[in-house]
Amino acid sequence: MQQYLPWFIATAALAVLATLAVLWLLQALRRPAGPPPLPVEWDLLPRPVFTADERRVYRQLRDALPHHIVLAKLPLVRFCQPADPKAVRYWFDMLGANHVTFAVCSANGRVLAAIDLSYDRGGPPGRSTRIKQAVLAACRVRYLRCPADHLPSIPELQLLVPMGSNASRGPQPAQGTSSMPGATPGTAGLSRRRERSTLWQDSMSFHDSFFSSGSRRELDSGHGELRDPGPARADADLAPAGMVVDDPAPPRQQPIQH
């Protein structure tokens, strides 16, 4: 019997070690994986933002629409927002990787039209194209998808942006509480703050300065232009026919009490 005692001890020790190994493995699997370490050497090279075709379209857009802002490679989540705060993850997962090649914006940053270059040969639109078409239609943004070997002319690009009135220049905001009968300024401000809480910035995963309340106030009010407007008279002189330039109203003078 004594000759088998070392074997019993060794078997029990192996069983204990195996149990401890299994428990350690289970604990390691349950532990959330941290971010991978940063590389020691960043083996990257610079690349141009535009291809040759995109560079030609960008120059044509600047020539055709000198009074507008032209942004390149603009993500869809920069100019749309979920109406339901509970669906932020769903919409961000669907839209986060999509962008338009060019976005034509008004001076206050409102997107008026989007342009993409197409390299397919007449095939059906892919999933990314269908997503962009649906998003831009929902946001009432004009969308042009042109073949890379048949670029639009300057007159065709000018037709993208309506020039008749300010009201037709971009997507219109929904009717707010302040326009409803019986609404007070306090309830209107509270309603606007609640509406802002339904944006991407509700989740820290989608934190973006564009969706901050200050940026939203600029967009809603029409202020906060992206470039220096300069003298009001000069803007009015440079505006093409059909473009309405709103000059700031002069300050009201208080009556002098005698």
From TrEMBL:
Keywords: Membrane, Transmembrane, Transmembrane helix. Residues 47-150 form the DUF2726 domain. The chain crosses the membrane at residues 6-26. Residues 163-195, 210-258 are annotated as: Disordered. Residues 248-258 have a biased composition (Pro residues). Residues 215-236 have a biased composition (Basic and acidic residues). Residues 165-181 have a biased composition (Polar residues). InterPro entries: DUF2726 (IPR024402). This is DUF2726 domain-containing protein. It comes from Pseudaquabacterium pictum.
